[in-house]
Amino acid sequence: MKGVEKEMSLPAARILGIETSCDETAAAIVSDGRVIESSVIASQVDLHTEYGGVFPELASREHVKAIYPIVEGALQQAHLNIQDIDAVAVTQGPGLAGSLVVGVSMAKAIAQATGKPLIGVNHLEGHIYSAWLYPANASPHQPPRFPILALLVSGGHSELVLMKDHLQYQRLGGTLDDAAGEAFDKVARLLDLPYPGGPSIQKASTNGSETAFAFPRAMLEGTWDFSFSGVKTAVLRSVEALQAEGRDLPVDDLAASFQAAVVDVLVEKTLMAAEEFKASEIIVAGGVSANKRLREKMLTASKLPVHIPPLSLCTDNAAMIAGAAYYHYIQEDFSPADFDVLPTYPLS
Fold this sequence. Notes:
By secondary structure, this protein is of the alpha/beta class. The protein contains twelve helices and eleven strands. Strands 5-4-1-2-3-6 form a six-stranded mixed beta sheet, sandwiched between helices. A five-stranded mixed beta sheet has the order 9-8-7-10-11, with helices on both faces. The longest helix is centred in the last third of the chain and has 26 residues, at about 250-275. The model is unreliable at about 1-5 and about 340-345 (pLDDT under 50).
């Protein structure tokens, strides 16, 4: 109960969050680091589908078109005006440079016009803090309890992070090559499945066998790092062999076997790290945390409580940025005059 009491005793603050790190233009308003008063997202996924991935120049142009109405929409949805906000938060990275600059420019303009503090947030810590959030019309859930072992899995990142308190991050390990989400996208292209690869692989695997192909599990013993290039290459070699024999590709079986190989590594290494570092609870976050097989296996295999955000908070959103910013806001001194330099945090 101490963790709950600590959360309940924190000061009140309402933060406007802005997220434009990749191909979603998003704005949200979060109160007290947990309550989502509004969340508005404009996705560009349909625009990038024909390229099989995000086209950076197109993404930045679309952010420019969408950013103002998205921020205005978040305020309207919450029935607030800009002066009701205590601070402005924005994703400062990592992400696409052209996309990030749109969000940062908007956030700086709002902060300068209103005199509100400006808080830069690392995109990855935003994903971690999505586990604290809940909608204003829902009942609050128990917040994660420290120490926490966080598995961050997305298109660009796969890493394990230990948190002993708010904003205290120890990066244990990360991907040495392809991130999990990147591997899903590349294998989906090999199997001629549509972008984005994660949902396509999951859908195809529903009718496939996880044991049809014995794809490798790279555990990289002695480290907390990940490597998914080997399993991706194994899928490629299997596809080439089948095609050389003139056989139709068993897409469902290939998808299911590949997905199982990735999920097994993610779950096993996370549980091993949680035990090694004596974590009390586990967080799984990032775009790949939407994967049904990963969610099911982590919840089933873990003896510790596992926090996995709802699907709406797994992919990029601004509520998670505002949620993370709250803890910076109450712990650090932000001058409304500091518009040119955003703070840097130890996740990358």
